[in-house]
Amino acid sequence: MFNRIISILTVILMVSSCGEQDGFKTTDSGLEYQFVSKGTSGNQPVEGQIVTLNLSMVSEGDSILMQASNMPIQKVEQMWSLKGGIEEAFSMMSEGDSIIVRVKAGDLYQRTWQMPVPPNINEDQLITCVIGMEKIYDADEFQKQQALAQVEEIDANRKQTLYENKDQMDADIAIIDAYLKKNNISAETTENGLRYVILEEGTGPKPQVGDQVQVNYTGNVLEGGYFDTSVEDKAKEFGLHDPRRPYGPFEFVLGTGGVIHGWDEGIALLSEGTIARLYIPSPMAYGDRQKSEVIVANAILEFEVELVGIGNN
What contacts 301, CB < 8 A, 6 or more positions away? Predict the structure, then answer.
């Protein structure tokens, strides 16, 4: 993708600097355009669908004004039917096409982007734009793709965090394993290093990434103090009770980064109704951040959790 954008930008710079007109056509509205490549599907978006565009803009002075990759735009016929601007180029394109167009700065900024023309650009200056229509999605499909991309990005970031904190992970795991051995606790281990014990097996299904889950929990620092719970009786037992707080299961969307890494990984292992204990190394929790007087930097956390429900209640 990056090489493709660079090669098309090279074409833009050559065209804009040389003033070359060969190969350009003009629509009835006066839009100058030239197709760089044509896709093979011939599919054009319909009303309400989402297209992802690669878009670059170059001024008459060969300054790159904008570069965007996989920029989502929804087809709205009222907008795409406008003539003489970049919208007309959109309406000419099919999936996989790349096109170069020249658009007046005033039309591009004020009409399309609905923003003032930058003071260093004349309204009548022609802006050379390259547009690549990468993919067409139904709206629901696009939302799923975005959610998947978000999950993949979160997963990659978390793996990078574990890699960068390998020494801390190794030290924490050694402490956890020593604690488990001393207390005759037999725990399971995930690939990333989370230790967990099933205290009571549930009979329901396991949640999937993107599911809304409801979890009761009680958290403490390993061999240290308790810091939070969703269960009112335990809050009273451990001196954490707050009469202003509504107690009950905590809800979050699994696998989307709304909770610490150790929770996303640990809860995904449980069947609905399961009660488990999670032993979470600090890089899978809050790392070197001090969250409270109890949760100091590089604190190893222990949670007793119950997967109460899956789905919206």
Answer: 219, 220, 221, 222, 260, 262, 278, 279, 280, 282, 285, 286, 295
Which CATH fold topology does 142-310 show? Chitinase A; domain 3 (3.10.50)
Q: Do domains 2-137 and 142-310 have the same CATH topology?
A: yes
Domain boundaries, the chain: 2-137, 142-310
Return the structure tokens found at 207.
Answer: 């949640």
CATH topology of domain 2-137: Chitinase A; domain 3 (3.10.50)
What is the CA angle 289-290-291, rounded to 5?
105
Please check whether residue 284 is in contact with residue 192, taking contact to mean a CB–CB distance below 8 angstroms.
yes
Alpha helix positions (H), the chain = 2-18, 77-80, 86-92, 105-106, 139-164, 166-182, 232-237, 261-267
As a whole number of angstroms, the distance between CA 188 and CA 88 comes to 59
**Which pLDDT belongs to residue 240?**
96
Question: Quick one: average pLDDT of 134-150?
Answer: 90
Structure tokens at 45: 């978006």
DSSP secondary structure, 160-220, as one string: HHHHHTHHHHHHHHHHHHHHHHHTT---EE-TTS-EEEEEE---SPPP-TT-EEEEEEEEE
Residue 19: the pLDDT is 45
238, 219 Cβ separation under 8 angstroms: no
pTM above 0.90, yes or no: no
- The DSSP H or E segment spanning 65 is strand 64-74
For tokens 């099933």, the residue is 198
- What is the Cα 147 distance to its own chain's centre? 7
What is the share, in percent, of the chain residues with pLDDT greater than 90? 79
Look up residue 30 and give its two tokens.
């006066």
